[in-house]
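re: ur question from earlier - yeah i can do the single chain one, its not a big deal. heres the input i used so u can compare w yours
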Amino acid sequence: MSVILVVEDDAFIRQAALWMIEDLGHDALFAEDLAGALSHLNATAPIDALFVDIRLAKLAFGGYDVANQAVGIRPGLRILYTSGSPITAAMIDMFVDDGQFLQKPYSLEQLGVSVGRLLQ
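and the output i got, formated as tokens:
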């Protein structure tokens, strides 16, 4: 079982993602912003992956800021980005390491495939 940190500023979407991740058999942690994410990342509890919304309010680079700081704290952390906006080459260029992308809205099956690929 893996531990996935979900960083999403929309409470409804965040809760749905948490339920889906738990339905897939993983443990889920959550944060609504960078400060919450850093609190989890600086703790000693294991985190296997970060599932982060690209367009987080109050951050110049949104989820990219979270992902960049996350891998600084936990090198090798796997990143799954999500957004309601269509993916562009410019967005992909900002991904950390081998970051992957999942388009919103996503189904449980789509999330399962993405998380499975991410954790391989």
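Helices lie at 11-23, 34-42, 62-73, 89-93, 108-119. not sure if urs matches, ping me
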